[in-house]
User: What shape does this take?
Amino acid sequence: MHSYLPFEKPVIELREKIAELKSFTEEKEIDLSDEISTLEDRLEQLEKDIYGNLQPWQRVQIARHGERPTTLDYINYLFTDFMEMHGDRLYGDDEAIVGGIAKFKGRPVTVIGHQRGKDTKENLKRNFGMPHPEGYRKALRLMKQAEKFSRPVICFIDTKGAFPGKAAEERGQSEAIARNIMEMAGLKVPVISVVIGEGGSGGALALGVGNEIHMLENSTYSVISPEGASALLWKDASYAKEASETMKITAPDLKELEIIDKMIPEVRGGAHKDLEQQVVYIDEVLEHSLHTLAKLSEDELVLNRYDKYQKIGLLAGENVVPSTE
Assistant: This one.
């Protein structure tokens, strides 16, 4: 049984009522099929009303759900022959980022992603999905290796942000993120990024400079958390719900703003409700992206990325500054 969010309470209560009636029918051998059918119809409509009209703060809650699939969950289903690689060859290994080589439908690829835990023990091991500099340097090492062997790079983004602790700053957190952004912009292989949960600040951008950027329907992508924005704007983090509504951080908003390329649909209630079906949706998008980008030459891939980011934030009527290279 999945844990549920506050706004899902009416759905859970109705499901429990249906289960109770079915159990009563079996035990007492009383025909309650009409009543059960009526409640099931009501449940179907209720789910459409709730999950079909999610507000930004509700999507934030789903993106943060403790049972939401992680990078390794998707790797296990989407790829074959995955071989994880460790370390940045400079300091150490950061388990908040996982990466390695694998095959996608028989084609060699490099897969990299943020990795958070699903319980306290694993979250401590993964530092709650907040990477240190060595995590980003490991990611960059794998990207450059992918470029050397002409492998597409697929990134999964799911982090509240880069770890802001003293040790991370001492080891060059901001430089590591900035270098990733710079180097990703010039990679001569296809780069696809998928936001699968939270995409927070520079910690997300360090894996987010792609030819194509996709988001799961209930994921978020923002420069700051709603709580952080609330604290800055109203000096009170309790206005996070209001902040999330004004920040345009959800997949529908970012698709409308043309910051992302595709919004990947989620199973009703969120990806954690049916991982296998969610994998099907992601698989289709990845296959289409790789097929499209395979047609571009190395120079065209870099120019494609340049043009993509030049267009972001333009006002109506403005033109993209052409590349000088």
The mean pLDDT is 92. The first strand starts at residue 80 and ends at 84.
